[in-house]
Amino acid sequence: MNSLSILFVFIVLTLIFMDFIRNLFGKLFGKNRNRMNIAVLVDGPNIIRKEFNVDLNKVKTEVEKYGEIRVAKIYLDQHARDKLIEAVINQGFEVEITTGDVDVTMAIEGMEYVLNPNIDAIALITRDTDYRPLLIKARERGKKTIIVATDVAFSAALKNTADNVIIIRDNVAEHIKVHK
């Protein structure tokens, strides 16, 4: 082997070793520890109401404590006002307008994310028990589940099915670990 070949092998081995050390220390000291790819799905008609005063930026901030938001969608019915649509788009959400039942569309798309190998967790922002089967299927397939809700008429069935629950009251979040 000539000196150029030896230098090349040395550089490659050094890069491999540095990558190993970076990954090792990242895991030991918490860098990217437990970072999941999360799909956030918002039940618009059930959550986006004046009486709940839900701040979607606060919701995203709280969900990001569990991982990286890869999908952020809000489901609205055909009666949603243009100003509402514009506001949620400006907060970084993709809007899905349904002509039928919002619950059906959100549940079907939620199942698509459950089956997506690039998504580790499903976060549902809802108060509606109709999404309990989606949570059950997600957990059966090894996905983590998060429910974000207001404390107003929040479903006990949802709370007891999810892995984690975030309850937002007066713009303050309470995190509850339900399942390990």
Q: Name the CATH architecture of the largest domain.
A: 3-Layer(aba) Sandwich
- As a percent range, the share of strand residues is 25-35%
CATH topology term of the largest domain: Rossmann fold
Number of structural units classed as domains: 2
N→C terminal distance: 55 Å
Strand arrangement, largest sheet?
A: 3-2-1-4-5-6-7
Residue stretches low in confidence (pLDDT < 50, at least 5 long) are: none
Kindly name the structural category: alpha/beta
Number of strands: 7
How would you spell out the order of helices and strands?
A: HEHHEHEHEHEHEE
Task: Specify the overall morphology.
Answer: elongated
C-alpha-based Rg, rounded: 21 Å
Q: Summarize the amount of helix as a percent range.
A: 40-55%
Tell me the quaternary state: single chain
Broad CATH class of the largest domain = Alpha Beta
Number of helices: 7
What is the mean predicted local confidence, pLDDT?
Answer: 83
Query: CATH H level of the largest domain: which superfamily?
Result: 5'-nuclease
Describe the biggest sheet? 7 strands, mixed
